Amino acid sequence: MEGALGLLGGGGGGGGGGGSSGGSTDGSMSTVSKAEVVEQDYVGLMSEVSSYPAEAELELGLGLSLGGAVKSNHCPWREYGRILTAKDFPSVVSRGSSASSSSSSGRANTSVTAITGTKRAADSVAQEVGPANGASQVVGWPPIRAYRINSLASQAKASTVEEEDSTAIGNGRSKDSARKNINGTSNKNNGNVQENGRLRSSLFVKVNMDGLQIGRKVDLNAHVCYETLAQTLEEMFHRPTTTVNAIRSSGENEHAVKPSKLLDGSSEFVLTYEDKEGDWMLVGDVPWGMFLNTVKRLRIMRTSEANGLAPRYPEKDQRQRIKPI
Amino acid sequence: MAYSFPEEVLEHVFSFIQDDKDRNAVSLVCKSWYEIERWCRRRIFVGNCYAVSPRIVMRRFPELRSVSLKGKPHFADFNLVPEGWGGYVYPWISAMAEAYPWLEELRLKRMVVTDEALELISRSFKNFSVLVLSSCEGFTTDGLAAIAANCRNLRVLELWECEVDDRSGNWLSHFPESCTSLVSLSFPCLDGEVSFSALERLVSRCTNLRTLRLNNSVPLDKLPNLLRRAPQLVDLGTGAYTAELRPELYSKLGDAFAGCKGLKSLSGFWEAVPSYLPATYSICAGIRSLNLSYATIQSPDLVKLIRQCPNLQRLWVLDYIEDCGLNALATTCKDLQELRVFPSDPFGVEANVSLTEQGLVSVSEGCPKLQSVLYFCRQMSNAALFTIARNRPNLTRFRLCIIEPRAPDYLTLQPLDAGFGAIVENCKDLQRLSLSGLLTDRVFEYIGTHAKKLEMLSIAFAGDSDLGLHHVLSGCNSLRKLEIRDCPFGDQALLANASKLETMRSLWMSSCSVSFEACKLLGQKMPSLNVEVIDERGSPESRPESLPIDKLYIYRTIAGPRCDMPSFVWNMGERSALRFS
After folding, report:
1. How, if at all, do strands B456-460 and B481-485 pair?
2. Residue A179: closest CA among chain B residues belongs to which residue?
3. Which terminus in chain A has less CB density within 10 A, N or C?
4. Which pLDDT band, with edges at 50, 70 and 90, does B57 fall under?
5. C-alpha to C-alpha distance for A78 and B177, rounded to whole angstroms
C-alpha cells in the first residue's frame, strides 16, 4: 500500500542492489560483487589508519560466502569483538539491565554467560563500565510513545499523593514514584522500594535559548541535581562548532562537577523555567524534587531580560545550592 | 511496436489505478506511459521526506492533489532522535504553494510543523480539504486557528499524538459560521480547553460529521449534547469519561448513545469511571473498534464492556485487562483482527497486574482472524510463542515487547530464539516484527531464512555479533525499514551488505558498535545513500575513528545530503568530507 516514488527504479536506472523482489540468487549475486568492492577498499583503509590497533587482523571474508556457509564459529567476529575494550566505551550509558542486581531477575545475568560460546564483547564491556553516575538510564525503553507515558502519568498524578521530595532528592525520582502509582487501586509500589531502577521514566522538557531558533529537549530524570543539568545544557548550547575536544572525551570522570555559569550568574545567560502556573522562575531556588514536579519547560534567557523574575539573593555565596549526593 | 491509443484513453484507464505500486509499475512500461502517468497522478506518498526534494517531486508530478510525507525515523517516538534533527515541512509547503495551488490533502507524520507552515497552507490552497498530522510537533493552536478560519472547504482535521503548544486561543471558534463541510474532527492530543458552545454549534451545522474525537478537557456532562447533535457519527472519541455518579447524567448519556445508531468506533475514555460505561451498551453491538488504552479500568469492568461487543475487530487496551480478560475476549470476539495491550506501569520492576503470555496465547487460540498484535508483558516462553505461531499463521504484524531487556524464556531460561523462529517460519506473510527478550544470533538466522515478506523489523538488546545483522540484511528480501538499538552489531555486516541499503527505505542503528571510520567509508562509497551520524557528544572527529558512534541513520535518497542538518548531525558523503578538513 505504500510505494516509493519509483524514482529509483524508474527512468532507466537499474537500481543498485538488485531490488527487493525477484530471485534471491540475483539479489545475492549483485550484493556479492558490490560487497567485494566495498571490502577491499575497507581493508585498504584499515591498514592506513594509524589509530587502529595493529594486532587486529580482520578477515573480511563475509561477502564471498553469502551462500550461507557463515557459521557462528567464524573467527573474524570474535576478533572484531575483542578490539573493543573497556576504554573504548568511556561515556556509553550502561546497557540497561546488564548491571542489574534486582532480586527478581537474576535470570538476565546468568543467562548472558549461559548462552553460546560467542562472546558478546560489547555487552560485557558495558557491564564493566556500568552506570557512571548512579542515574542509569535506558532512554526510550520500553518503547512507548512519550504522549502515552505523559497521559498515564497525568492520570496517575490526579489520583495519588506525591512523594515527599526530601526522600527522593538523592535520585530525583519523585516523579517516577508518582508514575508508579498509576495502578489506582493497588499501592504496593508505594514508597521508594525500587532498587537500581534500570528502567525509569524520562521527563523530557523543551529547552530554548534566546537567539537560537531551534530548541532542544533534555531529560530531567537523567539528572540528580541542578549542576549536572546546567552542565548538560551548557554543552548542548555552547558547544563549539569546530572540532575541538569534545567535553566528554575518552575516560574522563563525569563526576567532576564544576560550578555552572548558568546557575551562578556569571554568564550572559541565566537558566529559567516555566512552572505549572505559567510563571517564569529562576532555576535553582527550590529543592530539585520540587523543581521536577513543577517544571514545564526551560529557557536560557539573556541576563538582561531576566529582571523581574523571582528575586535573587544579592550575594552569590548566599545562594542555596543543591549539593550532589 | 507503438501503442496507438490516444493519450486521453490511456489517461482515462490510468485514472482507475490508484495504488502507488501499480502507478509506479505503469510508469515503467515505456516513455509515453511514463509521461502520461506523471501528468495524471494525483496522489503521492513520500515515506522519507529527505529521500527526494520538493523540486524533484514537482518537476515530475505537476498535478498532485494529495501529498503524504513522513519525516523523522520511527524511533523518534521514543525520544531516541534528538530534538532539532530535522523533518521540517515548511520548505515543502512553500514549494507546493507555488506548484500546487489546487492541493487538497496533506498528511504528515513525524514532521516539524510550524504555525507559519499552517498559515501558509491555509492561505495557499483554495480547495484544501484534508489535514492529518500524526506525531507532529512545532505548532500551536494559533496555527490551527488559521486553518479553521481560512480553509473554506475543510473536511478533515485530525491530530494524532502531536505535541501542540496550547495557547488557549479558542482556535475552534475560528471556524466560520458558514463552515458546514467537516466530516472528521479529531484533536485528542490537545491539552487545553475548547469553547463548548463553539464546539456544539460546529457539530450542529456540520451534518456530514462522521468522526469526532475530543480531548480530555471536554467533560462528560457535555457529551450528551454533542451526541444528540450528531446522531450520524460513526467514530467517537469521548473526552474525560468521569463524573460524579448522577442518575440524570447517566440516563442522558445512555439516551444520547442510543441515538447514535451508526457508531462503529469508540475511543477516549480518559479517567474512565466504570459506572458510566454501561451507558454505551446500546450501541456496542455495532462497535468494530475500541480504544480503551487510556482508561485505567480494572479487568472485571473491561470484561463487561467487551462482552457487549461481539463484532469487535480492533481492541487497544491497558494490561489491566489481565489474562482473564483476554480469555473473555477470545471467547466473545471472534472477528478480532487487531489487539494492542499497553503497560499500565511500564517502569515498575514488579508486575502490577496478572497479565502474562497466557493472555496472548488465549487470544491466538480463540480469534481466528487475528492478524496484528502489539503486546507488552513481563514474561514469555518459547512454548507460548510456538503455540501462537501454530495457532495464527495468518499473523502479519507481531510486535512483542517484554519489558525487561534480554529477559529469557522464564520457564527454561533459554533465549527466545526458537520461539521467534517459529513465528517467522509459520507466519509466512509477516510484514512487521518487533523482537524483545534474550536473543542470540540464531534468531536472526531464522529471520533471514524465513521472513521473506518482512518489511519492517525492530531490534533491541539482542544478538551476539555482526553475524546477526548479516543474516537479516542478506536474507530478508522484502526488508524496507530496519531499526536497531543497543545491539553488538558493528562495521562488518554493514559494509558487506552495503548495497542492500539501497533497496531499503532506511536503517537506524543506535548504541551499537559501528565505527566512525566505517560510516565514512559507507558514505563515500554509496552516493545514493545519506549516511548520517548523530552524536550529541560532539564531533566524531574528536575521538579515535575506531570508536563507535552514537547513532546512525542511513537512508536512500536522490536528493543528496540535506541542507538543514543541525550541529550534532554529520553526513558522511564525499561532498561532506570537506567539513572535516
Report:
1. parallel
2. B345
3. N
4. very high
5. 71
Maximal C-alpha separation, chain B: 78
Instruction: In whole angstroms, give the CA distance from residue B85 to residue B139.
Output: 16
Q: Which of B23, B320, B474 sits opposite A28 (nearest CB)?
A: B474
Residue A162 has pLDDT above 60, yes or no: no
CB A170 within 8 A of CB A325: yes
Range(s) of the domain holding residue B27: 1-41
- Residue pLDDT, tens place only, B287-309: 999 999 999 999 999 999 999 99
Name the E strands within chain A: 204-209, 216-219, 269-275, 280-282, 295-302
Q: Total structural domains in chain B?
A: 2
CATH numbers and ranges of domains, chain A: 204-239+259-302 (3.10.20.90)
Contact B438, B412 (CB under 8 A): no
Nearest CA among B185, B233, B194, B180 for reference residue B213: B185
CA atoms within 13 A on the CB side of A115: 26
Is residue B30 in some structural domain?
Answer: yes
Query: Which among A3, A24, A25, A6 is positioned nearest to A15, based on CA atoms?
Result: A6
Interface probe for A, chosen from B453, B474, B528, B541 (most Cβ of A below 10 Å), is B474
Q: How many CA atoms lie within 13 A of B375 on its CB side?
A: 31
Q: Is B558 on the interface with A (CB under 8 A)?
A: yes
Q: Does B538 touch chain A (CB under 8 A)?
A: yes
* A274 burial via Cβ count (<10 Å: 0-12, 13-18, 19+): middle
Grid cell 480469555 in the structure block, residue: B327
Q: Is residue B31 part of a domain?
A: yes
Q: What is the pLDDT of residues A56-71, one digit of tens each?
A: 333 333 333 333 333 4
Q: What are the pLDDT digits (tens) for B419-451?
A: 999 999 999 999 999 999 999 999 999 999 999
Which residues pair with residue B338 across a beta bridge? B314, B372
CATH number for position B4: 1.20.1280.50
Chain A nearest-CA residue for B167? A278
Residue B403 lies in a domain: no
**Which alpha helices (H) appear in B28-67, and where do they start and end?**
31-40, 54-60
Q: Are strands B43-46 and B105-109 parallel, antiparallel or unpaired?
A: unpaired
